[in-house]
Amino acid sequence: MYSNSAERSLYSLLIWPCAPHWNTKDILESKPLVTPTKSLTLQHNSKEPQGPLKNQISILLQRTLEEDKKKCNPMNVDDEEKKKPSSSSTSKKKRKKMNRMKRMKGEASQGDDEKEKKERTVSPLESLPQENHLHILSYLNRKDLKRVGAVCKLFQTLALSKSLLVAPELICFHSKTTFNEDTLGIGLKMEFRENDGVLMNITSPLDLISKHAFYYEGVRKSIWGQPMSKWLPIYINKHHGNLSALQMAIQDIYQSHPNISPKTPNLFQWRALDMMSKLMNSIIVEIMKGNVHASIKALQGYCYFHRWMLFLVQQYPECLSELENQVQNFVKFDQYRHKYACPNLGEFLTKLSVLGPSGLTWNYIRDAVVQEAATRNVLWVLKQFPHLSNFEGISDSERIEKTWQANQVSCKLIMFHVFFLKNVVEKHGQRSLEEIGRLYDMNYGCCLEDNLEELLQKELFKIQEVATLREYCE
């Protein structure tokens, strides 16, 4: 019964003081005992146990007597067991009762949790917009951010956001000034036509430089020594977006070169939109050169200028209406597709980037753009392959192949415009312009999608692999 020797010794010590005339060995081995006729009295030399030990000994003696009685009278034991419910049925009932209580407790706790959620008041911190949280936390370094993230779940989520990881990189390459200390922008390199001063090309190294460093310290070269003649602010968030700085920059550019874009109205908002369209189109040319690192940097610049366009059409709603009319006219009427009405198709496509909520998507304008692009490219095809002007003696397959060879650069540029429209603009087409701008601000002007850089690399590879006109049309 008791296999452990220590346990046997303990029970021997407990039993013997109360019943020294019993054979403790028999008790421990569960042998039947004969109840003594004389009362259980202590011998004169034994001491009566006191306190808890006395209670334990009395309980043990009672159990021993009951077991002895059962063994001596097996018939009575069976009768008593019949009267009592079986242990298996008792255990089943207990389990059912416990399960029922657990279910009731679980339902109650779930109801309490839902009630608590409904009754829980929102803390002042949670009621603040997320961009305000991010703006406050942007003043902290990474070590302090880690400490703040340990305060609560809200701060932990904010401290791990992508925008705060990008924030330390948003500094002037020359003075190391942050975007919280001065307005940051980029330098521009502009090339003009000699006879009339029309802008032919505009590029940017996309290295961030502060307004003070450019205008007051005279910095005119990028971090890699590329020349910069003009400066343009970027839009990081609503605290950094400086409309007066943009107005000053646009005015400075047009004062130096008044014939940049002759067909653009002489108003700030139209000049600014035209400048953003030119920059976005030129950046796509840089992206299509294929260098992955430079392409990711250029994509970031593209997003900066797209954010400015969103801001401008919100500040000047009449511009948004006019852009919608231009796109509608381009699709419906041939005269609005001519060079005098639409000088550059790439710049025209950038206008679709702010028309997503209007429902003017790439699918709506696709046929008109592809047809007009093919018409305009005829000039370049004949310059490169003059013999194609003869309609006789040339097979259709050869004509198609030569046409693709002459047009593949411009066709691939259109393909990348479509990539941006589908993955950034149309993906958020259900949102308002204000909501899209808010997403940009929460990411400090970074791409709206976390995996957009990965998608960019894959898309560049796919576009570079396009080898026929059929693949382009598909």
Outline the secondary-structure elements:
Blueprint: H1 5-15, H2 24-28, H3 51-72, H4 74-83, H5 87-119, H6 124-127, H7 130-137, H8 142-149, H9 153-159, H10 162-166, E1 184-192, E2 199-203, E3 208-210, H11 211-215, E4 230-233, H12 243-256, H13 268-287, H14 292-315, H15 317-332, H16 345-350, H17 362-376, H18 378-384, H19 396-425, H20 433-442, H21 452-465, H22 469-473
Antiparallel strand pairs: 1-2, 1-3, 1-4
Helix pairs in contact: 3-4, 8-9, 12-13, 13-14, 14-15, 14-20, 18-19, 19-21
Protein model, in words:
Residues 68-124 are annotated as: Disordered. Residues 122-158 form the F-box domain. It comes from Naegleria fowleri. Residues 91-103 have a biased composition (Basic residues). This is F-box domain-containing protein. The chain has 474 residues and is mainly alpha-helical. The chain has three domains: 130-167, no CATH class; 171-260, no CATH class; 262-473, no CATH class. 59% of the residues lie in helices and 4% in strands. The protein has 22 helices and four strands. Strands 1, 2, 3 and 4 form a four-stranded antiparallel sheet that branches. Strand 1 (184-192) and strand 2 form a beta hairpin. Helix 14 packs across helix 15, helix 14 packs across helix 20 and helix 18 crosses helix 19. It is globular. The chain starts with a helix and ends with a helix.
